[in-house]
Design a protein that fits this description.
It is built from 4 helices and 7 strands, in the order ααβββββαββα. The chain is an alpha+beta fold. This is Dehydrogenase.
């Protein structure tokens, strides 16, 4: 008997607990959501599908007046403004902790759902502390 192929469930580019935490502006709930679920990250360049080590190149915003660099993260890919590059990745809490640790000296702020519906911002140090808790 031939085996039936299971229908693949489409990957959801969202973290509902993160969206809920942003709605209530609750830092403790935000920390919990980041430790236990993925984050939607905009990409300048998507990763190569056949190379699992290539996660792509993360897109960051550099303020033209100050040179400050911001990392924009999203609770849902639907909240990413169309003006940003179209590619996104769904990254793990471990990835986020590693990325923030590696770039903490360059990134001045992290914005969540910057275009709404419930934007919030934090420093990389605050997020590292939340992820390490």
């Amino acid at each position: 008997m031939a085996g039936k192929k299971r229908a693949k469930v489409p990957l959801e580019f969202r973290n509902t607990p993160l969206a809920d935490a942003l709605q209530t502006q609750d830092m403790a709930a935000l920390a919990f959501a980041l430790r236990h679920g993925p984050t939607v990250v905009p990409l300048l360049r998507p990763g190569q599908r056949d190379d699992p080590r290539d996660a792509g190149e993360v897109w960051t915003y550099r303020d033209p007046n100050t040179g400050d660099i911001a990392l924009l993260l999203f609770s849902d890919a639907a909240h990413k403004p169309a003006s940003l590059p179209p590619a996104v990745a769904l990254q793990s809490p471990e990835w986020l902790r590693t990325f923030l640790g590696a770039h903490e000296g360059e990134i001045t702020t992290v914005f969540f759902d910057i275009a709404g519906p419930h934007p919030m911002q934090a420093t990389p140090a605050d997020l590292i502390a939340a992820l390490d808790a």
